[in-house]
Amino acid sequence: MRILFVHPNYHSGGAEIAGTWPPAWVAYLSGHLRRAGFDDIHFIDAMTEDVSDEDLARRMAQIAPDVVGVTAITPSIYRAEEVLRIASTVVPDALRMLGGVHATFMYNQVLTEAPWVDVIVRGEGEEICTALMEAVRDGRWPADRHAIRGIAFRDGDKIVATAAAGTVKDMATIKPDWSVLDWSRYIYIPLGTRVAIPNLARGCPFTCSFCSQWKFWRDYRVRDPKDVVDEIEDLVDNHGVGFFILADEEPTINRKKFVAFCEELIARGLTERVKWGINTRVTDIFRDRDLLSFYRRAGLVHVSLGTEAAAQLKLDRFNKETKVEENKTAIRLLREADILVEAQFIVGLDNETPETLEETFRMAWDWQPDLANWSMYTPWPFTPLFREIRDQVEIFDFSKYNFVTPIMKPAAMERGELLDGVMKNYRRFYMRKALFHYPWRGSGFRRRYLLGCLKAFLKAGVQRTFYDLGKAGYWGPQTKTSVDFGFDETRTLAEAQMDDWEASADRAARAAERREAVRAQMKERSEVRACGGGTQQMEGA
């Protein structure tokens, strides 16, 4: 049985300005499928290769697959649907399969607007996709489709979602096939080297209201650090990778496993051959302040911190559970350990003003991270925060839900003014860094890395790809009133999806009540301890 995976051709001028990123999903799925006996697997990275629809159709016809599979995050969903529409024309007998976070939660919407999609894989894909492929191979599809857990499909006029599948419990079975990728295409511009995105853990125990990762992966699981380093050693030795970013939302949550991971990298002598970066929380930097120099010795050179917002009010709304003053200290600790630090700010909520944008710039400059990034608030339609503000959402063109396009319109600003304010922050921050910091601060690796980051920004700026500026027609403050974001205003929400949202909202509300109850209980316990309560009191609290 021949399987073709396609990564949809979608570009937004966001994270891709730093390089071309390998789509790890296809490696993880392919590895699991190969161990189940599926060895005729093909892959087209239409995004990295910038494959046109016409060329995709031609290549698809040449491969003649029995199954066409594609994934999508929210902004790439229409391109993913188009891949399967092309498949319905070019290879009409092939099963058309869609997975990823957007389709997992929005299957009603997707199956309504793209009825040519045969089946949606809902959730973590390895075991569900393998079970689905086995049913196709054995001739049990579509007869047994109601018995396969974790999928959604159309059955006549009805949309059916089977019972949710369990998450992968045996993490030792996660063994990606990285050879499915053409590694010459995946380059990290700041260091001019090949880049990979493996993962150490899946899931997140935190419930940030703007994030969907904790909902998608459900339970938090950490892989054996030796298995992950096996992966990295393969990437370095056999694929020439010189830099990797752990895909985890927060790989430092389990400190014991993260330390073991670092120790394994050091023990195998990989620290001089490959450098790496992570995303993490400010609270973990505080917790691990005495370990930061050790992390640096293990090859960790770049930490992206979810500082998120300058105003504590916003942090509280996001449920980040951090304090503004902690951000500056965490950044200082990382820089003292010779780890480059990137501060992430979320802007563009309904209470955004020119003054709050200016405040984020002042804080960024006061905190002195090596890099700063201002992301437009993007209301993922399956997150708790979206449900709180959905009456304010005017744009349902999901192709623009990309962190660079202002989906939300602040009450006191036009979208063009918001974009102009963000660009002003970028211009001031990086111009000052370029003139007074990057060329003169430090030497060797740090200086080379920072100048490489500046090169990536300048390249994207000259090509007008940064923040989709070329497409939006933004050329500076003089054009802020004429910016055209190109929203497709014909896009609406399917009634079936609205019905499902109501049920999900009810469940989310109940979950929020449970979290508040737990917080209240923990607060009560801390107050008991603060009042000098003994062990007996603590056990009874």
What order do the helices and strands come in, and which of them pair?
Layout: E1 3-7, H1 24-35, E2 41-45, H2 53-63, E3 67-71, H3 77-90, E4 95-99, H4 101-105, H5 107-113, E5 119-121, H6 125-137, E6 151-155, E7 158-161, E8 187-188, E9 193-196, E10 201-202, H7 213-217, E11 221-222, H8 225-239, E12 241-245, H9 255-267, E13 275-280, H10 282-287, H11 292-297, E14 300-308, H12 312-318, H13 324-336, E15 340-347, H14 354-367, E16 371-376, H15 384-389, H16 415-436, H17 444-462, H18 469-472, H19 495-530, H20 535-540
Parallel strand pairs: 1-2, 1-3, 3-4, 4-5, 9-12, 12-13, 13-14, 14-15, 15-16
Antiparallel strand pairs: 5-6, 6-7, 8-9, 10-11
Helix pairs in contact: 1-6, 2-3, 5-19, 8-9, 14-16
Question: Could you give a short description of this structure?
Answer:
By secondary structure, the protein is α/β, with parallel strands linked by helices.
Describe this entry's structure for a reader.
By secondary structure, the chain is of the alpha/beta class. The chain is 43% helix and 14% strand. The chain is built from 20 helices and 16 strands. It has helices at residues 24-35, 53-63, 77-90, 101-105, 107-113, 125-137, 213-217, 225-239, 255-267, 282-287, 292-297, 312-318, 324-336, 354-367, 384-389, 415-436, 444-462, 469-472, 495-530, 535-540, and strands at residues 3-7, 41-45, 67-71, 95-99, 119-121, 151-155, 158-161, 187-188, 193-196, 201-202, 221-222, 241-245, 275-280, 300-308, 340-347, 371-376. The protein has a seven-stranded mixed beta sheet, sandwiched between helices. Strands 8-9-12-13-14-15-16 form a seven-stranded mixed beta sheet. Strands 10-11 form a two-stranded antiparallel ribbon. The longest helix has 36 residues, at 495-530. It is globular. The model is unreliable at 525-541 (pLDDT under 50).
